[in-house]
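Internal tracking record. Fields below are filled automatically when a chain is submitted to the structure queue. Please do not edit lines marked as system-generated. If the sequence contains nonstandard residues, flag them in the REMARKS field before resubmitting.
Queue: standard
Priority: normal
Entity type: single polypeptide chain
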Amino acid sequence: MYPKKEEKLNTIPAKNRQDALWSWSASDMAYGIRTGLFSSRETVKSCLERINQVNPKINAIVEVLADEALREADAADHAVLRGEKIGPLHGVPIVSKINTDHAGHATTDGVVAYKGHIASQDSPPIANLRKAGGIFVGRTNVPSFSLRWFSNNDLHGCTLNPWDSTRTPGGSSGGSSSAVASGMVPIAHGNDIAGSIRYPAYACGVTGIRPTVGRVPGSGPINVDSSLAVQMMGVQGPLARKVKDLRIALEAMSAPDTRDPIYAQVPLIGEPLKGPVRVGLLRDVGVAKPDPLVNQELDAAASYLKDAGYIVEEVELPLFYEAYKLWFLILLEDLRGILPMIGEFGDKAANVNLEYVYKVSEELWGKPSLEKYKQGYARRGTLIAQLQQFLEEYPLILFPSSTEQAFLQDEDIESVSASKRLLNAQWPMVSVPVLGFPAISVPTSVTSGLPNGVQLLGRRFREDTLFDAAEIIEARSNMATPIDPKF
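SYSTEM-GENERATED OUTPUT FOLLOWS
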């Protein structure tokens, strides 16, 4: 039975706290709430105060759910007092992305015409985070139709990178990455079909995991048909400041949901890899040479893994170049059916970006026929088999997140040549969804005021091995988030 409104919760006040609660990790927040060190209300209020302080500067959260979050925080505190069974994120503030259904709120996807599209139920990833005890304090920004590596649109405006306002926070989960990096929340929801979790994490100096396709249920409302590319390449996943928080969030998001046609209930922890574990270091696949700074970060990450007992060896994997090319064929051909809708309702930047991307694709594929499209899917299966065989010898691959640091804002719509350069720089982003394997983005250092990072890829459904390696890199890296906006 709930205490009466006038009754006070007998939580133990936090003592000798050197840092504000908003700066704590999700796992530490959850521990403090669970043990009565402090309340969920305190924690949520701290994050809401942080949102009020920094969000006006960076516009990461476009809908703040303060009243709703405080009500849920009180309910979470009552549950602790009653000794109820609680989830791993019980009482912890989190955010959801505006391209994903969140009951009672608009799924705008950054589109003006969709501002009244109120969701009647939670999508699977939102429902699972809620079941785990997470408390949603806001909704985060995306580009129009979630189609760019930038996060601005005509409905909600432009999200800024807290490290540098002239640089992208990434996209399409740029609102999520910016919110996490600036201390508004410790964990954010994201999704990824072309790097939309991993690239924002890289651009903002946080960590994010793209799970194996099928790991996290991700379909929307029943009877809404998803394209083949979305079913085979799109995933839902978390962003966080710490790898340990990604572990908790991924576990929460991976609960079953029958709305996803390809969900697979696979254990989150597999058999230990036989040691010493070999890591393939992949630098270049013939699309764009990594900047010297990127190579430097790869070398540093490789040395950290070696110090921890891994064997790191340089490798060549031309299949990633083929996967990069196939992304254009498979995804862009699937998009053709909705191009008229995007043309009518999307903002100018979304349409210019798409125009340029299709022109770059034509350089690779010409004007694809149905037969070429079918052959592309057939070739995809062969590449997946080849990578699976390679991962038997090298269970992990260390490679760039991007071949350069975070792009300048709106650089993708300057010209076709600029779009091509950015697309080439993102070969590590777009090749992975085609193949369907899990990959994690890990920050490593800061240079010239911008974060750097690397990416790790592993065997299907072995996200646990990625977390293990990523924590080694994280422990040795010179990174410190959350940060105050640098402008």
